[in-house]
Amino acid sequence: MLSLDGGRASALEAVDLRLADVNVRIAAPHPLARQIDLVLAGVPRFDEGRTPELTIVAAMRDDAWEITGDDGSRKVLAATSAVPHVIGAAIASAVHGVAAARGLVPMRATVIARDGRALAMIGDDWESAIGLATHLHGRGWAYVGADHALFDPQTHTAYGVGKSLYVNASSISEMPLRYRRAVEASPWYVTPQGIAFYAVDPRAAGMAQTWLASAPLRGVVVVDGAMDDTPSLEAVDAKRRADERLARFDLDWSQVALADVRIGGFVETCDVLEHWFETTARSC
To answer: Are strands 165-168 and 157-160 parallel, antiparallel or unpaired?
Structure first.
């Protein structure tokens, strides 16, 4: 288990990233910067000597974590926040800053792609979305973003954020066998509420493909935790597409297929997802 003991007095270190063609620097105390570097191992770095276009600073001030950006953004977290919560706040600030700078839409989504086309999974059931993504990864799909992506409404391109997968310890048994060694090699954390989870680098699963920098978005699936004995997908009609959660993506839905998924077993659900994507989403 990892902690930030001593982080208050540590000098800030920089992690230099290249997100959607923007040079981003995240500066944090050494223990936190080391973990940010690991969690974002799938994100390209910009060349040494180049100037960052956006800087995010995570530091302890007055018994609280402050996440500030030179774009004017500011978040405050309790000093007792778990490491991944602080990392997540810094990453979210970077994603939103890049979105504002590039005219992109930040997506809180698990985005995967195959044959040059991307599928985004949104909704409240993040554990199931990650579980489905790990199984699809084993079938030849690649990650664009584990839980963040950037979307260009003009080109319909989803740009990736190569962040480690946050996997709840209780979900490991649902993952493909090849992911077990990736979990074993991953750092684990415990929140103040006693929830244990891992930060899994999917490259450790040993697949031939893992990360894509970008791909055109062709499908969106809503994963809300609905389950049944057998999986199913239901296309979402035009009226539903106007609801607040979907409208904020500013999509031209004539080019992006949308469906609700009801999860059965993960293998069977992936069969249904792939069939839907091949026959419906790919035609958009």
So the answer is: unpaired
Q: CB-hemisphere CA count at 13 Å for 275?
A: 11
| Residue pointed to by tokens 């077990």 | 180
Three-class SS state of 251 = coil
Look up the pTM and report it. Answer: 0.88
Of residues 149 and 250, the one with the higher pLDDT is 149
- Alpha-carbon distance of 97 to 266, in angstroms, equals 35
Q: Where are the domains of the chain?
A: 7-103, 106-283
The whole-angstrom separation of Cα 278 and Cα 284 is 10
Q: What's the topology of domain 106-283?
A: Rossmann fold (3.40.50)
Which H or E run contains 25? Answer: strand 22-29
pLDDT for residue 208: 86
Phi, psi for 125 (deg, rounded to 5) = -95, 75
